[in-house]
Amino acid sequence: MTFDIVVSIVVLVVTMLLFMSGKFPFALPAAGACVVLYLTGVLTAEEAFSGFQNTNVILIFAMMIVTGGLNRTSFAKEVTKFVYRFGKSEKSIVICMYLIVGILAQFMNAAVALAILLPIIYSMCEELKVSPSRIIFPISIGALSWVGWFPVANGASAYGRYNGFLETLGATERLGIWDLWYGRLPAVIICTIVMLLWGWKLAPKEPSYPIQEAKARKQKEPLSPVKEKIAYIIFILTTVGMLTGSFTGLDSWAVASVGALLMVALGILNDKEAFGSVNWNIVFLMAGSLGIAEALAVTGAASLVGDWMVAAMGGITNPYAIGAIFFIVPFILTQFMSNTAVDNVFTPLAILVCMSLEMNPVGVLCILRVAGSCSYFTPMASPAIAYVMPAGGYTIKDLAKMSILPCAILGICSVAFCMTVFPA
């Protein structure tokens, strides 16, 4: 184990402990970790602070401004009235928002889908006198468990990427375009049913620390009818631009950035309101968490774990045991680093192990996909969790309490189903 790997793991552990202490704003330990990784020589300055230029961070930053402009309109109130047709309760909010965010997550990443809905959730919670902490995390489960499920947008490219690995490594099997959807089908459906019927109640009734809402949300001065229409047009065009990005070639972060600029340029928000609509705690937490994830990837920590896993598997040949291993280990790693990085490390390992045992690798690849989506436990796990953690006032302990049930459902169902319908 090299010096760089040791430092990366120590920084990760210390950062997690600071997060759990609740004595510091999340931005402080996250940004501090990047500084330490640079000063110790583990990462270059470009690598340590790459999170601040990461397109996901830029995307969330821009969408905060876009939704800040939308908050100046009556949009949230109108959506709230629509949801109230199905009931005025915590459960009705969870059900409606869960299904909406699941649909949005087929066309954009989970963090952006949540960023679009968060102002609406805040509005409904304020009117019903319900704490946002009760609603936000259950909705994020919907976003992450459903994201890229159908073979459209990002979901359409996943099977092609796996087939590229299969071809390169000499495997004869190939994934069909619907295989990843089919492999996740029972796990996603059962998780959704459980979360909507009972699982959402695991969310705390009150935030563990004060929620820092954007200042622009508090703005009560109404827009003129013309500016309100302009705000709607900007928001709709921004959303459509992101939804159709896979067809037009336009990057979501660029579309969102244009939308944010138009909100200011056309007078929907002034400069102070635009910056006030940004939750800087979220921005720094996301960027800092990406720096830690970068260290784990660059130093080879993930590859080291993968090598240990293959060596430890030894004579295991039971397909269900192998499926379970390729869920559990990537699932644990993806709580601390990018699920994309984890997926890229374990995809060739999974294929090679299956080839050596003359097993069909399709089921294991489906399981690997599910493991990557179970990124709920820490802000390093995914941009979506880094976004909702401050937005809902959650601690690491809260995340763990709420995440165990959906992760257990997704893991058990995916291993049992995938290793049965894609047998060796």
From TrEMBL:
Membrane topology: Multi-pass membrane protein
Subcellular location: Membrane
Keywords: Membrane, Repeat, Transmembrane, Transmembrane helix, Transport
Annotated Gene Ontology cellular component terms: plasma membrane
Regions crossing the membrane: 5-20, 26-45, 57-75, 95-123, 135-160, 180-200, 230-247, 253-270, 282-302, 308-333, 345-370, 403-422
Any one Gene Ontology BP term: transmembrane transport
Citrate transporter-like domain: residues covered: 16-342
Domain of life of the organism encoding this protein: Bacteria
InterPro entries the record matches: Cit_transptr-like_dom, DASS-Related_Transporters
Name the UniProt record assigns to this protein: Anion permease
Naturally occurring in which organism (per UniProt): Candidatus Enterocloster faecavium
